[in-house]
Amino acid sequence: RWIQLPSNPEGSRDAPLAFAFDIDGVLIRGSNVIPAAKRALSILEGNNPLKTKIPYILLTNGGGIGEAERCRRLSKELDFEIKETQYIQAHTILKIVVEKYADVPVLVLGGLNDDVRKVAQSYGFKRAYTPLDVKAWNPTYGPLTLLEAHNLTHIPSVWPFYDLTADELASTRPIDFSTTPIQAIFVFHDPRNWALDTQVICDVLQSGGIIGGPYRKPDIPIELVFCNPDLIWRADFERPRLGQGAFREAFQAVYKALTGAPYPHVQYGKPTTATYKFAEQVLRDRLAEMQGKPVKEMPQVYMVGDNPESDIAGANAAGWNSVLVQTGVYDPADGPPRHTPTHHAEDVEAAVRYAIEREI
Ligand code: G3P
Ligand code: MG
Protein backbone atom coordinates (compact mmCIF):
# COMPACT_ATOMS: atom_id res chain seq x y z
CA ARG A 1 0.00 0.00 0.00
CA TRP A 2 3.04 2.31 0.19
CA ILE A 3 4.16 3.99 -3.04
CA GLN A 4 7.53 2.61 -4.12
CA LEU A 5 10.08 5.46 -4.08
CA PRO A 6 13.66 5.12 -5.40
CA SER A 7 15.86 3.72 -2.65
CA ASN A 8 18.34 6.19 -1.22
CA PRO A 9 20.65 4.49 1.26
CA GLU A 10 22.61 7.68 2.10
CA GLY A 11 19.59 9.21 3.75
CA SER A 12 16.26 10.83 3.04
CA ARG A 13 15.94 12.69 -0.26
CA ASP A 14 13.31 15.35 0.45
CA ALA A 15 11.39 12.97 2.67
CA PRO A 16 7.70 13.96 2.61
CA LEU A 17 7.54 13.78 6.40
CA ALA A 18 9.68 13.97 9.51
CA PHE A 19 9.15 13.03 13.14
CA ALA A 20 9.82 14.56 16.54
CA PHE A 21 9.69 11.97 19.32
CA ASP A 22 9.17 12.66 22.98
CA ILE A 23 11.23 10.28 25.12
CA ASP A 24 9.71 9.55 28.54
CA GLY A 25 6.45 7.68 28.05
CA VAL A 26 6.99 7.23 24.29
CA LEU A 27 10.39 5.58 23.74
CA ILE A 28 11.42 4.91 27.33
CA ARG A 29 9.66 4.45 30.66
CA GLY A 30 12.03 4.93 33.59
CA SER A 31 14.80 2.37 33.12
CA ASN A 32 12.97 0.38 30.41
CA VAL A 33 12.77 0.80 26.65
CA ILE A 34 9.16 0.65 25.46
CA PRO A 35 9.01 -2.38 23.09
CA ALA A 36 7.34 -0.44 20.25
CA ALA A 37 10.23 2.08 20.23
CA LYS A 38 12.78 -0.12 18.47
CA ARG A 39 10.20 -1.24 15.92
CA ALA A 40 9.29 2.38 15.20
CA LEU A 41 12.91 3.48 14.75
CA SER A 42 13.60 0.46 12.56
CA ILE A 43 10.86 1.64 10.18
CA LEU A 44 12.37 5.14 10.05
CA GLU A 45 15.92 3.89 9.57
CA GLY A 46 14.87 2.30 6.27
CA ASN A 47 13.08 -0.90 7.19
CA ASN A 48 10.03 -0.01 5.17
CA PRO A 49 8.81 -0.41 1.55
CA LEU A 50 10.17 3.08 0.77
CA LYS A 51 13.73 1.87 1.36
CA THR A 52 14.78 5.31 2.56
CA LYS A 53 15.60 6.89 5.91
CA ILE A 54 12.82 9.08 7.26
CA PRO A 55 14.24 11.95 9.37
CA TYR A 56 13.51 12.24 13.08
CA ILE A 57 14.66 14.13 16.17
CA LEU A 58 14.13 13.48 19.88
CA LEU A 59 12.53 16.36 21.81
CA THR A 60 12.42 15.83 25.57
CA ASN A 61 11.74 17.89 28.69
CA GLY A 62 14.27 15.65 30.36
CA GLY A 63 17.94 16.51 30.88
CA GLY A 64 20.50 16.76 33.67
CA ILE A 65 23.50 15.44 31.78
CA GLY A 66 25.29 16.60 28.60
CA GLU A 67 23.69 16.01 25.20
CA ALA A 68 26.62 13.85 24.01
CA GLU A 69 26.41 11.56 27.04
CA ARG A 70 22.60 11.25 26.80
CA CYS A 71 22.87 10.40 23.08
CA ARG A 72 25.47 7.77 23.90
CA ARG A 73 23.13 6.20 26.45
CA LEU A 74 20.08 6.44 24.16
CA SER A 75 21.96 4.85 21.23
CA LYS A 76 22.83 1.91 23.50
CA GLU A 77 19.28 1.60 24.86
CA LEU A 78 17.50 1.97 21.49
CA ASP A 79 20.02 0.06 19.34
CA PHE A 80 20.11 2.89 16.82
CA GLU A 81 22.63 5.73 16.67
CA ILE A 82 21.12 8.90 18.08
CA LYS A 83 23.27 11.85 17.04
CA GLU A 84 23.53 15.13 18.94
CA THR A 85 22.11 16.80 15.83
CA GLN A 86 18.93 14.77 16.45
CA TYR A 87 18.63 15.52 20.14
CA ILE A 88 17.05 18.36 22.13
CA GLN A 89 16.58 18.26 25.88
CA ALA A 90 14.94 20.73 28.26
CA HIS A 91 18.00 22.98 28.68
CA THR A 92 19.63 22.67 25.24
CA ILE A 93 17.96 25.97 24.33
CA LEU A 94 20.12 27.72 26.97
CA LYS A 95 22.98 27.48 24.46
CA ILE A 96 21.40 30.42 22.65
CA VAL A 97 21.05 32.61 25.78
CA VAL A 98 24.34 31.83 27.56
CA GLU A 99 26.27 34.77 26.02
CA LYS A 100 24.59 37.31 28.31
CA TYR A 101 25.64 35.35 31.40
CA ALA A 102 28.89 33.68 30.30
CA ASP A 103 31.15 35.61 32.69
CA VAL A 104 28.91 36.43 35.64
CA PRO A 105 28.03 34.29 38.68
CA VAL A 106 24.87 32.24 38.04
CA LEU A 107 23.08 29.58 40.06
CA VAL A 108 22.32 26.31 38.23
CA LEU A 109 19.94 23.72 39.72
CA GLY A 110 18.62 20.24 39.11
CA GLY A 111 19.77 16.67 38.87
CA LEU A 112 22.50 15.26 41.05
CA ASN A 113 25.79 16.59 42.31
CA ASP A 114 27.97 18.30 39.73
CA ASP A 115 26.33 17.01 36.54
CA VAL A 116 24.34 20.18 35.86
CA ARG A 117 27.34 22.42 36.58
CA LYS A 118 29.32 20.47 34.00
CA VAL A 119 26.50 20.90 31.45
CA ALA A 120 26.35 24.63 32.19
CA GLN A 121 30.11 24.93 31.76
CA SER A 122 29.89 23.03 28.45
CA TYR A 123 27.39 25.65 27.24
CA GLY A 124 29.77 28.49 28.19
CA PHE A 125 28.63 29.49 31.70
CA LYS A 126 32.05 30.15 33.27
CA ARG A 127 30.84 30.93 36.80
CA ALA A 128 28.08 28.38 37.43
CA TYR A 129 27.41 27.55 41.10
CA THR A 130 25.06 25.02 42.67
CA PRO A 131 23.10 24.87 45.94
CA LEU A 132 25.70 22.36 47.18
CA ASP A 133 28.37 25.03 46.72
CA VAL A 134 26.28 27.25 49.00
CA LYS A 135 26.02 24.45 51.54
CA ALA A 136 29.79 23.92 51.32
CA TRP A 137 30.43 27.64 51.75
CA ASN A 138 28.53 27.69 55.01
CA PRO A 139 27.45 24.36 56.51
CA THR A 140 24.99 26.19 58.76
CA TYR A 141 23.23 27.30 55.58
CA GLY A 142 20.49 24.74 55.41
CA PRO A 143 19.83 22.99 58.72
CA LEU A 144 17.03 20.94 57.17
CA THR A 145 18.98 20.04 54.03
CA LEU A 146 18.82 16.37 53.16
CA LEU A 147 22.14 15.82 51.43
CA GLU A 148 21.21 12.17 50.91
CA ALA A 149 19.15 13.32 47.93
CA HIS A 150 22.46 14.26 46.34
CA ASN A 151 23.94 10.79 46.77
CA LEU A 152 26.07 12.19 49.59
CA THR A 153 24.93 9.53 52.05
CA HIS A 154 28.49 9.00 53.27
CA ILE A 155 28.39 12.37 55.02
CA PRO A 156 27.79 11.81 58.74
CA SER A 157 24.71 13.75 59.69
CA VAL A 158 25.30 15.59 62.94
CA TRP A 159 22.05 17.28 63.88
CA PRO A 160 21.32 20.08 63.33
CA PHE A 161 24.08 20.51 60.81
CA TYR A 162 25.68 18.23 58.25
CA ASP A 163 29.49 18.11 58.23
CA LEU A 164 30.71 18.13 54.68
CA THR A 165 33.80 15.94 54.43
CA ALA A 166 36.99 17.57 53.23
CA ASP A 167 36.67 16.01 49.78
CA GLU A 168 33.09 17.27 49.42
CA LEU A 169 34.30 20.74 50.28
CA ALA A 170 37.27 20.33 47.97
CA SER A 171 35.01 19.20 45.12
CA THR A 172 33.16 22.47 45.28
CA ARG A 173 34.90 25.62 44.29
CA PRO A 174 35.93 27.89 47.20
CA ILE A 175 33.48 30.71 46.74
CA ASP A 176 32.30 33.35 49.22
CA PHE A 177 28.63 33.94 48.42
CA SER A 178 28.53 36.94 50.74
CA THR A 179 30.64 38.82 48.20
CA THR A 180 29.51 37.13 44.97
CA PRO A 181 26.24 38.54 43.63
CA ILE A 182 24.34 35.86 41.72
CA GLN A 183 22.92 37.48 38.60
CA ALA A 184 20.65 34.74 37.22
CA ILE A 185 19.15 31.41 38.24
CA PHE A 186 18.68 28.51 35.80
CA VAL A 187 16.72 25.43 36.79
CA PHE A 188 18.20 23.07 34.18
CA HIS A 189 16.67 19.80 35.35
CA ASP A 190 14.28 18.42 37.99
CA PRO A 191 15.58 19.39 41.47
CA ARG A 192 16.19 16.52 43.89
CA ASN A 193 16.39 18.53 47.10
CA TRP A 194 13.44 20.91 47.02
CA ALA A 195 14.15 22.27 50.52
CA LEU A 196 17.71 23.35 49.78
CA ASP A 197 16.96 24.53 46.23
CA THR A 198 13.90 26.54 47.31
CA GLN A 199 15.90 28.10 50.16
CA VAL A 200 18.74 29.13 47.87
CA ILE A 201 16.48 30.67 45.22
CA CYS A 202 14.50 32.59 47.89
CA ASP A 203 17.73 33.91 49.44
CA VAL A 204 19.19 35.01 46.11
CA LEU A 205 16.00 36.74 44.96
CA GLN A 206 15.22 38.46 48.29
CA SER A 207 18.78 39.69 48.87
CA GLY A 208 19.57 41.03 45.42
CA GLY A 209 21.87 38.10 44.66
CA ILE A 210 23.97 38.21 47.85
CA ILE A 211 23.12 35.07 49.82
CA GLY A 212 22.66 35.99 53.49
CA GLY A 213 22.68 39.69 52.67
CA PRO A 214 19.99 42.17 53.73
CA TYR A 215 16.71 41.90 51.86
CA ARG A 216 16.87 44.40 49.01
CA LYS A 217 15.96 44.83 45.35
CA PRO A 218 18.92 44.37 42.98
CA ASP A 219 19.87 47.20 40.58
CA ILE A 220 19.26 44.76 37.69
CA PRO A 221 16.41 42.23 38.13
CA ILE A 222 17.70 38.68 38.64
CA GLU A 223 16.45 36.40 35.85
CA LEU A 224 14.82 33.16 37.00
CA VAL A 225 14.62 30.53 34.25
CA PHE A 226 12.87 27.15 34.34
CA CYS A 227 13.59 24.69 31.50
CA ASN A 228 10.82 22.13 31.92
CA PRO A 229 7.18 22.99 32.77
CA ASP A 230 6.03 19.39 33.24
CA LEU A 231 3.80 19.14 36.28
CA ILE A 232 3.88 15.36 35.82
CA TRP A 233 5.72 12.82 33.68
CA ARG A 234 5.78 9.03 33.31
CA ALA A 235 8.55 6.85 34.66
CA ASP A 236 8.51 3.21 35.85
CA PHE A 237 5.84 3.66 38.54
CA GLU A 238 2.20 2.95 37.65
CA ARG A 239 1.13 6.60 38.07
CA PRO A 240 2.75 9.73 36.64
CA ARG A 241 5.43 11.40 38.81
CA LEU A 242 5.83 15.07 39.78
CA GLY A 243 8.21 16.94 37.47
CA GLN A 244 10.06 20.25 37.37
CA GLY A 245 6.76 22.10 36.88
CA ALA A 246 5.68 20.84 40.30
CA PHE A 247 8.90 22.21 41.82
CA ARG A 248 8.21 25.55 40.15
CA GLU A 249 4.67 25.64 41.61
CA ALA A 250 6.00 24.76 45.06
CA PHE A 251 8.75 27.39 44.89
CA GLN A 252 6.36 30.11 43.67
CA ALA A 253 3.90 29.28 46.47
CA VAL A 254 6.69 29.66 49.06
CA TYR A 255 8.00 32.86 47.47
CA LYS A 256 4.48 34.34 47.40
CA ALA A 257 3.96 33.41 51.07
CA LEU A 258 7.26 35.17 51.89
CA THR A 259 6.87 38.28 49.74
CA GLY A 260 3.22 38.58 48.80
CA ALA A 261 3.62 37.73 45.12
CA PRO A 262 5.20 35.04 42.93
CA TYR A 263 8.48 35.92 41.18
CA PRO A 264 8.33 36.63 37.40
CA HIS A 265 10.15 33.85 35.61
CA VAL A 266 11.11 32.69 32.09
CA GLN A 267 9.80 29.27 31.03
CA TYR A 268 11.38 27.06 28.38
CA GLY A 269 10.59 23.45 27.45
CA LYS A 270 7.60 21.84 25.70
CA PRO A 271 4.98 23.33 25.03
CA THR A 272 6.61 26.80 24.92
CA THR A 273 6.86 28.48 21.54
CA ALA A 274 10.56 29.17 22.13
CA THR A 275 11.32 25.47 22.45
CA TYR A 276 9.27 24.44 19.42
CA LYS A 277 10.83 27.18 17.29
CA PHE A 278 14.24 25.98 18.48
CA ALA A 279 13.24 22.38 17.66
CA GLU A 280 12.06 23.33 14.19
CA GLN A 281 15.49 24.83 13.44
CA VAL A 282 17.24 21.71 14.77
CA LEU A 283 14.99 19.56 12.57
CA ARG A 284 15.67 21.80 9.56
CA ASP A 285 19.43 21.44 10.17
CA ARG A 286 19.08 17.66 10.56
CA LEU A 287 17.19 17.42 7.25
CA ALA A 288 19.92 19.44 5.54
CA GLU A 289 22.57 17.17 7.12
CA MET A 290 20.78 14.05 5.80
CA GLN A 291 19.97 15.41 2.34
CA GLY A 292 23.27 17.20 1.88
CA LYS A 293 21.56 20.42 0.87
CA PRO A 294 19.61 23.25 2.55
CA VAL A 295 15.93 22.57 3.12
CA LYS A 296 13.70 24.70 0.92
CA GLU A 297 10.36 23.58 2.30
CA MET A 298 9.78 21.79 5.60
CA PRO A 299 8.01 18.42 5.23
CA GLN A 300 4.99 17.49 7.31
CA VAL A 301 6.25 17.13 10.91
CA TYR A 302 4.67 14.58 13.26
CA MET A 303 5.23 15.00 17.00
CA VAL A 304 4.65 11.76 18.88
CA GLY A 305 4.07 12.34 22.59
CA ASP A 306 2.46 10.97 25.74
CA ASN A 307 1.67 14.25 27.50
CA PRO A 308 -1.16 16.35 26.05
CA GLU A 309 0.00 19.42 28.05
CA SER A 310 3.51 19.48 26.59
CA ASP A 311 3.77 17.33 23.47
CA ILE A 312 0.32 17.79 21.91
CA ALA A 313 -0.26 21.41 22.99
CA GLY A 314 3.16 22.47 21.71
CA ALA A 315 2.96 20.58 18.41
CA ASN A 316 -0.54 21.88 17.68
CA ALA A 317 0.56 25.47 18.39
CA ALA A 318 3.62 24.98 16.16
CA GLY A 319 1.44 23.83 13.25
CA TRP A 320 2.84 20.30 13.41
CA ASN A 321 0.77 17.12 13.32
CA SER A 322 0.46 15.51 16.74
CA VAL A 323 -0.03 11.88 17.73
CA LEU A 324 -0.91 11.06 21.33
CA VAL A 325 0.14 7.61 22.57
CA GLN A 326 -1.11 5.62 25.56
CA THR A 327 2.24 4.36 26.91
CA GLY A 328 2.94 7.32 29.21
CA VAL A 329 1.09 10.11 31.01
CA TYR A 330 -2.14 10.05 28.95
CA ASP A 331 -4.64 7.39 29.97
CA PRO A 332 -7.85 7.14 27.86
CA ALA A 333 -9.71 6.08 31.04
CA ASP A 334 -9.22 9.66 32.29
CA GLY A 335 -11.35 10.98 29.44
CA PRO A 336 -10.47 13.16 26.47
CA PRO A 337 -7.21 15.15 26.64
CA ARG A 338 -7.32 18.96 27.09
CA HIS A 339 -5.40 19.27 23.82
CA THR A 340 -6.79 17.33 20.86
CA PRO A 341 -4.15 15.47 18.82
CA THR A 342 -4.26 14.94 15.08
CA HIS A 343 -4.46 11.24 15.91
CA HIS A 344 -4.54 8.84 18.84
CA ALA A 345 -2.30 5.78 18.67
CA GLU A 346 -1.64 2.94 21.07
CA ASP A 347 2.13 3.31 20.90
CA VAL A 348 4.96 4.92 18.92
CA GLU A 349 5.06 2.17 16.26
CA ALA A 350 1.36 2.62 15.51
CA ALA A 351 1.96 6.39 15.39
CA VAL A 352 4.77 6.02 12.83
CA ARG A 353 2.76 3.63 10.64
CA TYR A 354 -0.23 6.00 10.73
CA ALA A 355 1.85 9.01 9.67
CA ILE A 356 3.66 7.17 6.85
CA GLU A 357 0.41 5.78 5.46
CA ARG A 358 -1.13 9.24 5.69
CA GLU A 359 1.71 11.03 3.90
CA ILE A 360 2.87 8.51 1.32
O1 G3P B 1 12.08 15.12 33.44
C1 G3P B 1 11.58 14.55 32.26
C2 G3P B 1 10.09 14.66 32.19
O2 G3P B 1 9.67 15.93 32.58
C3 G3P B 1 9.45 14.36 30.85
O3 G3P B 1 10.31 14.09 29.84
O4 G3P B 1 10.75 13.02 27.62
O5 G3P B 1 8.38 13.06 28.50
O6 G3P B 1 9.47 15.20 27.73
P1 G3P B 1 9.69 13.84 28.33
MG1 MG C 1 6.80 12.19 27.76
UniProtKB/TrEMBL annotation:
Residue runs in coiled coils: none
Segments crossing the lipid bilayer: none
GO cellular component: a single term: mitochondrion
Superkingdom to which the source organism belongs: Eukaryota
Pfam family, one: Hydrolase_6
Gene Ontology BP annotations: glycerophospholipid biosynthetic process
NCBIfam families named in the record: CECR5 (TIGR01456), HAD-SF-IIA (TIGR01460)
Name of the molecule in the record: HAD-superfamily hydrolase
